[in-house]
């Protein structure tokens, strides 16, 4: 196949961090007018490759050519000026500035050094209009949702004269409609001959949008393939180096034994967060919550855990009326909550794995009753082994672990407390397939052992695979609750879409 | 197209509260002025406000520099010492017979260079601004004492002329050249903050330094620039202070960094950076000045009441800002 | 060897030893400790004795900074505690009555704790940034201290009160014993009990700590109140040593010295991990510096210059960015990146 000359070519790239070889002899090329997916588990070297390309890191070996000329960028700014723009997974904008400024800052329209505010607002509106967005561009970015902030980031990247656009997991905080919008924009850019490097954990999205993919594993190149010629099963096999059997095995779930009602929410609600809902969770039951981002999934979890105060309704635990003012009182009632936002609401980055693990237990005992060292060792060793946390060194700082292993430590933090209800908000988001499977299996085992689990996930398959009962949310309202018998993703999608009152 | 409708729904539901702190400060300033006018005779005159400008011109200039630094999320503890150093340098150089304008230029350059050095250390060696400017504070104060531990009078005719000149504004109103300089500094600074890239980069850096870096903004240049500006403003404030006091003394302006920070905070600028206006700082300085005026009008109050009153006011303002901006603030990640 | 070099107390220790060694050159018998009339004397003893208030304030400050806070008001609390104690004692009919002095001391300490708790309330209860919250008391506190003493320097003549800052007990200056007790108590609370873990957790990530069931509010209140207490004790020591209370100058700038001591000791201002022994080292460095300047005959006015110099050197040496940029560039260009990597990882 006669391909056009690549606009970007990286060859023999090597990058070493203290103790880790992040990249080793990786080749990569981007053709103009293609969407090229960069695939690999967490820790495969995707982020490092991108950061090397955009000048965040130096390279230790290899070379980079842009349009046939060797380049080495000293900073993201230099890369941007050369035509390589990046939109990162986390929204990297300044939320205190207005939308228009976020699109234009650093290259504002000026006359005699004076910023032309009116022209800037007008042009910002035009750019956003091309993305089908009609918002007040003079409002601060912080007044908009994460999804919208993400779209603004893309608008900024697109408007810079980009030859190469790098989208590093841009879709992880977008709902289906927004993803479709993004893809429309991506296709349009493709037609203009821009090369797009796309990273996403959602395989369906990869297959929908990408033309070609490069697969990395453990910092080395596995190969480059045309998307149309590689099946999903083959892809996963190449990414994780083992077969899909693990994922399949979970398909059969024993039906939930009808336990006693553990948590009963009656018309519980909070203005602006979630409309009053009624939900009962039984012992040993896995209740899944499905819905788009921002539909109120997380808000339900936070209310049940006392992280936010409920405005209306009542909550019963074991049939007894309770009022959860703080997470602390929820923990005392043997509830546990693993937040979706690991970095902001889970990890204490400067503490060790051990300290992160025992934190909730220590908190529940209060500071006057320390956990004896021997007991700590016992617990920590047990959970590191049980959850297969790597590296198995309790005195490692948790910030040095991969996302999947951090998530396991956070899970262990709660499992130590032997909670009766475990609330998991997107526990598998942004972690690699292997860790994902392990966490899913763990959830199944826990519920078999009698623990109730409230499982929130954006991936409908995952919800269906694990749950006994599924609650569907739409526009901050719990619209349906269905037993998971013969339920399919299609039914769920339809319920979410229609907001059916079934 | 439900998603687009959904996005529209997410349009801001409340007016962004960015102007509220400034409005509150303005309101309280007015209230104090009116209350003073009712309580004391000869208080509610234009000259009282002009006097506040005249007596606090140096503080205003210093607070302008501090505003730049605080907007980037930093802090500059060295300003008071740099003010003292500027008065000391001016006084001793003038005594040695240097021409007045050469002294002024030299002092301004030294202040800017000091700020530049601190900014460079803060940025390139990644040491907290608090500590670096603390070292700068010790350094400048120490330099004062090595020049002299005594107060040096200034007798240079240019300086004394400037000190005695009053510019008539018509009516019975007049201001000092220092006050005019301070107002010009404020206007220039407001223009820079609002209409130039440097100014917008200051806000961006204060909002999120990491994001600013990834957006390709010159964070290093911005951070170093704000400390340079602050150093320059402190030196200029020092010159104005020298005009005001006509002497150089190593112990002058002790604690002025606190007054400058207090003025900026009362003016509604967040110490975490990224939010605030220069107008707020001006109002903050005016409020501090008006407190002193009121206490002097009261006559029976001892001087330490000024401090207690400023502390109390800080508390009230901070609390008010918390009430107004706290509710709408996102849970910051 | 490299592990010793990387230990976070290595550089502070080197500086302290270097400073002490410098003294040895200029002062004969610098390290000599003598027994006179049942009391220990010597330059080393003096350093610890005069440094005692700073060590105390720094200990409280360490815990506050570990919660990613800061307490600017300690200097004011020092002044207030001294002022109140002296006021009460000067009002006693018998200034040498132990009971009366104990009452005055107790009252001053209770007020210090209340002032600390007030800071804690502003920070934890209302949610004001610590630097602003404590700025309030810093500004108002000196006014309060002068209000208590009515702007005068209150002098007392009380031998039981003199003991706190100027007396001896069991051959040692009483101040050193107080410091030892407070240090032991702090170490016990934080390291033997679990207060340290909770403080580091709240300082590392307050929201995550709340969701893990930690009562961040309680931890913060405890820490600020403790910091107030430490400052109060230091205030009593300072005023007892000179048998008077000066609302204007007592403890002036001690907050800056204390913050400096904490930072020199390796506790980052951003909170999280803290080191009590590091803080004690830091405070000793600052005190030794002052002593050194006197002993080598440099005019005392320039103390501040030297302080600036030492602050800069210590902070530069401790800054990973400085170390990689200056020491490693030529030898190993490729590994000169971990600092940058660190920076990115924090945000990623």
Brief descriptors of the model:
heterotrimer; B: 333 residues; mainly alpha; ABC transporter involved in vitamin B12 uptake, BtuC; two-stranded antiparallel sheet; two-stranded antiparallel ribbon; 15 helices; 4 strands; 72% helix; globular; disordered N terminus; disordered C terminus; C: 348 residues; 71% helix; 4% strand; cell membrane (chain C); transmembrane helix (chain C); transmembrane (chain C); ABC transporter permease (chain C); membrane (chain C)
The pLDDT mean of chain B sits at: 86
Ranges of chain A where pLDDT stays below 50 over 5 or more residues in a row are: 243-249
Helix percent of chain B reads over 70%
Cα-to-Cα separation, first versus last residue of chain A: 53 Å
Strand order of the largest sheet of chain A: 6-9-10-3-11-12
* CA distance, first residue to last residue of chain B: 30 Å
Largest sheet of chain B: 2 strands, antiparallel
CATH architectural name of the largest domain in chain A:
3-Layer(aba) Sandwich
Quaternary state, please? heterotrimer
Number of domains of chain B: 1
How is the largest sheet of chain B built, in terms of strand order? 1-4
Q: Roughly what percent helix of chain A?
A: 25-40%
Structural class of chain A: alpha/beta
**What is the CATH C level class of the largest domain in chain A, in words?**
Alpha Beta
CATH superfamily of the largest domain in chain A: P-loop containing nucleotide triphosphate hydrolases
Main location (chain C): membrane
Protein name (chain C): ABC transporter permease
GO molecular function (chain C): transmembrane transporter activity
Subcellular location (chain C): Cell membrane
Mind explaining what this structure looks like?
Chain A contains 18 helices and 22 strands. By secondary structure, chain A is an alpha/beta fold. Chain A has three domains: 8-248, Rossmann fold; 249-334 and 420-502, Rossmann fold (3-Layer(aba) Sandwich); 345-418, no CATH class. A six-stranded mixed beta sheet of chain A has the order 6-9-10-3-11-12, with helices on both faces. In chain A, strands 18-19-20-15-21-22 form a six-stranded mixed beta sheet, with helices on both faces. In chain A, a hairpin with a 2-residue loop joins β11 and β12. Residues 243-249 of chain A have low confidence and may be disordered. With 333 residues, chain B is an all-alpha fold. Chain B has a single domain, classed as ABC transporter involved in vitamin B12 uptake, BtuC (Orthogonal Bundle). Helix content of chain B is 72%, strand content 2%. In chain B, the strands form two sheets. In chain B, strands 1-4 form a two-stranded antiparallel sheet. In chain B, a hairpin with a 5-residue loop joins β2 and β3. In chain B, α3 (46-55) crosses α14 and α5 packs parallel to α7 (129-147). In chain C, the strands form three sheets. A two-stranded antiparallel sheet of chain C has the order 1-2. In chain C, strands 3-6 form a two-stranded antiparallel sheet. Chain C has one domain: ABC transporter involved in vitamin B12 uptake, BtuC. Chain C is mostly helical. Chain C is globular. Chain C has 16 helices and six strands. In chain C, α4 (74-90) runs parallel beside α6. Chain C is 71% helix and 4% strand. In chain C, β1 (34-36) and β2 (39-41) form a beta hairpin. Chain A: It is a peripheral membrane protein. Chain A: One of its GO terms (molecular function) is ATP hydrolysis activity. Chain A: InterPro entries: AAA+_ATPase, ABC_carbohydrate_import_ATPase, ABC_transporter-like_ATP-bd, ABC_transporter-like_CS, P-loop_NTPase. Chain A: This is ATP-binding cassette domain-containing protein. Chain A: It is found in: Cell membrane. Chain C: One of its GO terms (molecular function) is transmembrane transporter activity.
